[in-house]
Amino acid sequence: MTLIQARGFRLLPFCLFAIFFSTSPANAQDQQKWIQLFNGKNLDGWTPKIKGYKLGENFGNTFRVEDGLLKVRYDQYDRFDQRFGHLFYKDQFSHYRLRLEYRFVGEQVKGGLGWAYRNSGAMLHGEAPETMAIDQDFPVSIEAQLLGGDGKHKRTTMNLCTPGTNVVLNGKLFKPHCTSSSSKTYHGDQWVTVEVEVHGNDLIKHIIDGKVVLEYREPQLDPRDEHARELITRNGGIMLSKGTISLQSESHPIDFRKVELMVLEK
Predict the structure, then answer these.
(1) Which of 25, 61, 90, 94 is the most buried (most CB within 10 A)?
(2) CA-CA distance, 226 to 176, in Å (whole number)?
(3) What is the H or E stretch that residue 178 is in?
(4) Is 35-263 assigned to CATH 3.40.50.920?
(5) Residues 6+ apart with CB under 8 A from 63
(6) Each residue's pLDDT tens digit, 161-213
(7) Cβ distance 5 to 232 under 8 Å?
């Protein structure tokens, strides 16, 4: 036996161990922890709330499933007229990882606001849709904002916006409505995979390609906001430790091909 053969023989058990470990039940179980919130077939488990319409009324077939994709479309709108919409998942969550695969497509519907060009978002720690007023623009929530590039300028995605809320950013209470992440710009109709890691009322991280592009702490209701004050009374406190998840319709078509969640230990 040559020296090289001997070394190869000694390495064989380690290789077999590595193969076994990579396909072991523990790893298979880890993969099974992901819950598919979107089943690729229909909107089971999801309920729309569009400004000006009753909960459950999907005006203009805004939210639909076609070709295995969850699509947001406006082909049945004459004008957008600030009919902001949100598609709510049925359950509330506290500690979790949320992973989305999305792409912006087509042209913005007539009447959409300038800032809403290639703009959508995932609303976290949100209020229940039943508590929203019929003409309310956005649920009180923490928004992981999704933005697409215009082909020329820098435009980060996975930013933070705070409708009716505040967070602690860099050790200080952050009251402005939005702040940008450190992500690169994603131009065109390419698919983008993003993730949010949420730890109740403690830490929230925005992640792209395994890199944290924004993080903040202590999501909370904003007492400056009238509706948030109602929720403070209803909730018995200002801090947010759980809530709904919803996807936005803000006037630009967008596709989601994956919406999945992993529940984390507290």
Answers:
(1) 94
(2) 17
(3) strand 178-179
(4) no
(5) 43, 46, 48, 70, 71, 72, 85, 87, 247, 249
(6) 999 999 999 999 999 999 999 999 999 999 999 999 999 999 999 999 999 99
(7) no
